[in-house]
Design brief:
This protein is mainly β. The protein contains 2 helices and 38 strands. The longest helix is centred in the N-terminal third of the chain and has 4 residues, at about 125. The radius of gyration is 23 Å and the shape is globular. The chain starts with about 45 loop residues before the first strand and ends with a strand. This is Glucose/arabinose dehydrogenase. Keywords: Carbohydrate metabolism, Polysaccharide degradation, Signal. It holds the Pfam family CBM_2.
Length: about 500
Amino acid sequence: MLKRRWAILLLIASLLSLSTLPAVSASPLEPSRPADAGAESSVPLPEIAAHTTQVASGLKRPTAIAAPDDGSGRLFITEKRGTVRVYHPDTGLAQTPLIDITAAVDESGNERGLLGIATAPDFLDSREVYLAYTALPDGAVTLARYDLDDASLKALLSQEHATYSNHNGGQLAFGPDSHLYWSIGDGGGSGDPFDSGQRVDTLLGKILRIDVSRSCGDLAYCVPGDNPFVGVAGARPEIWTYGLRNPWRFSFDPADGSLWIGDVGQGRWEEIDRLRPAEQPGANLGWSCREGLVVFDEAQCGGGAELTDPVFTYSPRTGSCAVIGGQVYRGKQFADLVGGTYIATDYCSSTVWALRDDGAGGYLQAEIGQTPTQVTAFGATSEGELYVVNDLPGGLHRVSFERVAPACRITQTANAWGGGLTANLTLTNTGTTPVSGWKLVFPLALGQTIISDWNTDLVQNGDMVTAANAAYNGTIAPGDSVEIGYLANHTGDTSAPERYTLNGHACTIGD
């Protein structure tokens, strides 16, 4: 078939100061649920354990994974320096790169380089791959098309990003509408120095949506007519969602088209966002007015903008540093355990987070294991099975799940009044061996501060609490329990903790 050949274009946007944003509305076509989208598991999250198995080594700072839907069973893996390697489960990791664009890539600084990859929806015929990278000579974040047949690289869209080397974003994914989505960070530095998050005259701090199957006028792509800022004076029409700090990794749930975003925080809160199809166009995720659910910069909160709340936040105070957005599991092998469950991790703590819609407007949450150190990206095969890559030492790992008996159970009662509350917790060893020396870790709701405790040695660090055994209750026999509790102040939210871990193992909550 004839292939597309589009001209290279560098877009230069004039920067405008926008004090208020007009109301916008648009709705993409909501996808029908694919027949092979996978089951919805009802297994309690604390009864699930995540594991990884290394299947390849020798990668040099891998950053992203893509699976061509061509029946080959291959995975394409980007390396920071500007190469793409191929892995096949039967033959392993090929030594010769499939793609080498090192001559075009600025890999200076820890966060620059080749950052994202997506194969065209018609890859089997077109053999086209889309790449996101920071380009020489000045680190501009760039979207380009690569033709595997003639090894040509065609830049389609670029955003200046010279001042700071961090917060480049870089995720690429084709949505259920076959348009290409691309995330770009806020321009780097600290505290959103360009005020990018709440501006719509810049591509910084955004997720973009463009049609790369054709060109329009002088553009090497087309802007879909239902993008929310089409026709809005001073706004970049490519913008799909905004108010993001560094959306390093996002993904679409193939079952319902939901967009899941892992947005790296400033230092107090990491956040995960979920936007259903009707919620996506024009969604404002808050940065830098807010970090997570907490006001970060009051000066960026004007204009009456409606902010979309994250569905999950966590504090980096227990060793975390950067959320690595994952995917909703839609494979078949582990559908009975984690079908419909969103799986993510953190670059520093390696905690595996599991989130699941509770059917009542909230989300169940649990820590269900550990990934290898410094995971940078999740990827899925065309059948929906999950893999991760880690930065150093540079490996590819297959993700698996098993059902386990929870090690502990928490029952909790609380009494709230005015600005205070008391909480009583019963910690039961549901395992088969004694627990000798224990630490119970759990988060408090925003605005809760513990002022005293009993039957435990308790420390609060931000929102995170570590309750350790006292000298007289350090051993809990199988089936036995200990009673602990605390007195806390609150600023209005009196809700109980939503997750607990005992010595690193998730606890069930309730009788």
